Structure formats: C-alpha cells, structure tokens
Amino acid sequence: MHRYRTHTCEQLRESDVGSTVRVSGWIHRKRDHGNLLFIDLRDHYGITQCVVETGAESFALADGARPESVLTITGPVVARSLDTVNLKLPTGKVEVRIESLEVQAAADELPLQVFGDQEYPEETRLKYRFLDLRRERIHHNIALRSEVIASIRRRMIEQGFAEYQTPILTASSPEGARDFLVPSRMHAGKFYALPQAPQQFKQLYMVAGFDRYFQIAPCFRDEDARADRSPGEFYQLDVEMSFVEQDDVFDAIEPVMFAVFDEFTDWEVTPQPFPRIPFAEAMLKYGTDKPDLRNPLEICDCTEAFAGGGFGIFDRAIGKGAVVRAIPAPGAAGQPRSFFDKLNDWAREEGWPGLGYIVFEDGGGKGPIANNLEDDRVGRVRSLTGAGDGDAVFFACDQPERAAALAGLARTRVADELELCEGNAYRFCWIVDYPMYEWDETDQKIEFSHNPFSMPQGGLGALEAEDPLQILGYQYDIVCNGVELSSGAIRNHDPEIMYRAFGIAGYSREDVESRFGGMLRALSYGAPPHGGLAPGIDRIVMLIADEPNIREVVAFPMNQQAEDLLMGAPAEATARHLRELHIRVVLPEPEKPPES
What is 435-490 written as a DSSP string? Predict the structure, then answer.
C-alpha cells in the first residue's frame, strides 16, 4: 500500500465498500457525536468523511489534532446509513472507519478559518494567502484559472499558432505605464526594464518570418490597482499574425473567446461574429468604449431639441459648446419622486452638476425641465429618444467628453435601479475605428490617442492629406460585459508611414530614430503586414468565475499599495547588494509640518 494514499479524498464510492484504503489530507472540520468523532478530510480533489470510536487506538490522536492539520488515515470503506448520506458530496454515501492515523503535520491555531464562508480583512487574507487558498471558492478559482489557460493554449495551437517566448529583461518601452527597472551589475548606472508587454518582440517575430505567434505572457507595469487590474504584474494571451487584415485577427480570436467562455460556464455567450461598434458610435450610444451590452439602454443626442429653447441652463451651455445626451428610463414614470431625486443626488455626489429629467405621461412631459421647455421641443425629445407614456428620460449636459462620461455612468445606474440588465450572459463586442490622434488641451498640441505603432486607415496618403483629428486607425478593443479584455491593432510596418505618423505628433525624424531605432531597423529590412492583440488572462478568468475583483483569481496578488504581505516585498536591499549594483539609495526628504 502506498505510504500516503491509495485514493484521493474525492474518489471513494459505494463500489469501494469493504476495501481497505489510505487517504491523506487536511482536517476540514471535526464533529464530536459523543461516542463517535467524525473528521472531514480534505485534499485538492474533494472531501471524505472519516470516523473513529472513542475507545479506538487512534481516537486520542484524532481528538487532539487541530483543524488544518495534515493526516494520513487508513481503514475500511463502509456505507453510510440512509439518514447520514450527504448527496452534496460525491463521496457522501460512504465513509472510512479509522483503523490507524498518522499526523503528518500539526497545525497551529488558525488566523483565519478555512471551513465556512467567513469574511476576513484583505490584510489577513494576503498575509496568510496559503490558508486563504485552501478555502473552497478561491481554491476553485485558481484551479479554474489553470484549466482556462490550458484550454486557451490548446485552442490556439489548433488554430495554427505556435508558442514562442520573449525576454523578461529588456529595454524600457513606450507602452504608457511606468516601467519596473532592474539595475545591471555588469554595466554600472544602466538598467534593464521588465516588459510592460512583449509588443516589440512579437512584432520582431513577424519580421523574422514566423507566421502565427502566441504566448501566455507575463507583463509588468508599475501602476495603481483597480478591481480589474492587478498592481505590478499580470498575464495576457499575447497574439500576433502576419499577412492579415483586421477581420483576419477577429476571425482567429473570436472562436477561442467564444469556446472558452462556453466551455467553462452555462451562461449564454454572444454568437459569432461579435458585434463591431465604431468608437464614435460607442461613445454616443453608451458613453464609453467599454460598453456592457447586457444593458439594453442606448443614449442619444438631444442637443437640437434644447438649442435656442426655453430651458435656459441647457441653452446657454450649448452656446458654449456643450451637448445634451439623453438616457432613457423605460417605465420609470411609475417611480416615486424619490427615485428621481436619488439619481440627481448621486450625480452630484459623483462631482457632476446634476441629472435633469422629463417624465412622459398623458401625451406630454412633466418635471422641472418640461415645465420650462416648449411643448414642441418636449415632443422632439420624445421623438429622438423613442420614449412613450410611462417612460422617463434623464439628461447630461456638458462639453462632449464630460457629457459622454456622465451619460455612460447614468446609463449603468438607471439600468441597475430599474433592474433592466440581462442576467447570466456574456456579451462580447469589438470596438473599432479609434481616432489616431487627439487634441491635448494642456499642451495645446496633437498627440496619439491610442497605439502609436498602429497603421492609419488610408496609410501615408491619409497622413499627408487629411485633418489629423479625422484620421482613424486600424485599432480595436474586445470588450465583454463592460470589461476591456484586450487592445490590438494592425501594425505600421512601413518606416516612412511611421516617420510621418510620429511627425504629426511632434516627433522629429531624429527623435523617432533615437527612441525606436531597433524597431525601425527591423522594418527597414522587409516587414510583412501584421497585427495582433493581447486579451488579459486574469480578466478572462475573473469574468468566467463571476468575481468582482481580480485578486480573487490570482494566486498570490499584491495589495492596493503594491505590497506582497506574504513575502514582505518590496524590501530594503542590503548594503552588499547595493554595492554590487553601484547604487546608492536617496530617500525623499520628510515633509515639514506646516508653520503655526
């Protein structure tokens, strides 16, 4: 018999009754029933109930072992009586009678309980993450993560992609976030950077003649944490393809995304092809380029209904360049006045001027705005929004970007309040046709709005002849349930287009050559048209697991302050390390208290 186990704690069934087995695992919980002591023994696979009588040789050891101690138990499998069968467990019709018991590792008193659904502070969970990971929900999430990655890898290979690796120690790149720098011992005063993404290397694979690349790639960015973003590091499905147009990338990735979500959940998944929504349309209809399409509400422009009208606040704002976005609230006319006041208060608490509204009843409009707006203009609002009697419409009036932002937030809030969102569904879409450039009000100059290495629609001709703010790029995002899973683009593979594109953003030819010389050299020796994207693994698993925070699907995450409480990182370096790296630490001066 194997020293530790003949079966896992999930394997035993009625067919094993009468056989002597050995199982090992952790004490999940103990129950003392007088003359019998029950132990639920847990391993990675499941739970087996074990039982020992008070007079048995192993009773004292079993009774004295704390929860989460590791035991090896040997004994016969017996059938449970009908009144003690537990159909919630695969092993729930049998139990092991303990003949011998060995304590492999005794557990100290626990700082958090593994059994049960108690909530614990984040600091406790992260400091004792090895215990937190034993808990059923998060243990399942990490196992699910492994299965999702294996499924993605298999599906990519089936699509003809090959997995290649890219460097971890590299040079700083213009990805947009802060780099993590690694000092060089051999080259005093110089630093490597951990890759924010394998962007340039995967393009170099295409230049080198490899056709379809993918990698489950670690990426490192020194940025703040969010619910859908880990500080420090994350993983992505990094993809690049040669001799492709935008549709080819979509056709390769959609089957993988659809199949993975369909495989691991019973929720409905958007059928292929996924909707393709131009950026400008997304900002108008949804107020964001990350729309949650489970929400049926669509924003519309009502500026014309208010321009020159009797509602002076809106009219004056429109005269200064503002727009009016309307957010429908179907069936909201039956809501009490407090419903509307609550939404208005919410907008103010979020830093906005407020959220006006019109209620449509008896063929007309009611409310403060309708009382000051001409009947024909109220009718125009009704027509533009498609509202009918019994509906209401909320309004966001501000400069275009701010109006879109408020309308997008209000669209989500109204749908939540009215319980309009579709449940148990994954709704995918592509956001396409991003602008290549935008106007920077602070610096009063044109700058890139998305990925500067993307191919502009219209190529060199568009860059030379069109208004830069009207040029679109072959850039795209894939979004699911309001979460951006990935950005991507068809890449610029022509050095002359690259020079011109950067020139519009204020970079000289010399600037481009000094900052991106490696890529330029590669493009100068024959680069194929190529493109790709990089869906986030952590976010995919977060959605599939239906978790609100990405830390619940990462085995060893950092806290909000980018600290590893388990290992104690970041930590001070020793004097020896600093000498070897030719580094001296200069701490910031402490802030002086204000003078009284």
Answer: BSEEEETTTTEEEESS-TTBPBTTHHHHHHHS-GGG-BBSEEEEEETTEEEEEEEE
pLDDT digits (tens, 9 = 90+) for 40-57: 999 999 999 999 999 899
Cis peptide before 452 (omega within 30 of 0): no
Helices 136-158 and 537-544 cross at an angle (nearest 10°) of 120
> β-pairing, 20-32 with 36-42?
antiparallel
Task: Identify the CA nearest to 387 among candidates 311, 310, 299.
Answer: 299
Model pTM score: 0.93
Give 205-242 pLDDT, tens digit per residue. 999 999 999 999 999 999 888 878 888 899 999 999 99
* CA atoms of 404 and 301, how far apart (whole Å): 10
β-bridge pairing 268-269 and 425-426: parallel
DSSP-derived secondary structure for 214-233: EEEEEEEEB---BTTB-SEE
* Token digits of residue 41: 């023994």
Q: Identify the helix (H) or strand (E) that includes residue 152.
A: helix 136-158
Beta-carbon contacts of 366 under 8 Å, excluding residues fewer than 6 positions away, are 358, 359, 360
**Residue 401 CA: distances (Å) to CA of 225, 307, 349:** 25, 18, 19
C-alpha to C-alpha distance for 531 and 76, rounded to whole angstroms: 61
Which residues, 6+ apart, have CB-to-CB distance to 170 below 8 Å?
192, 193, 194, 195, 201
The residues with which 366 forms a beta bridge, in sequence order, are 359
Residue among 16, 27, 33 at smallest CA distance from 49: 27
Instruction: Count other Cβ atoms within 10 Å, centred on residue 124.
Output: 14
Q: Which amino acid is at 558?
A: M
Written as one letter, the residue type at 357 is Y
Residue by residue, DSSP assigns 478-539 as: EEETTEEEEEEEEB---HHHHHHHHHHTT--HHHHHHHSHHHHHHHTTT---EEEE--BHHH
Q: What is the 3-state secondary structure (H, E, C) of 88-107?
A: CCCCCCEEEECCEEEEEECC
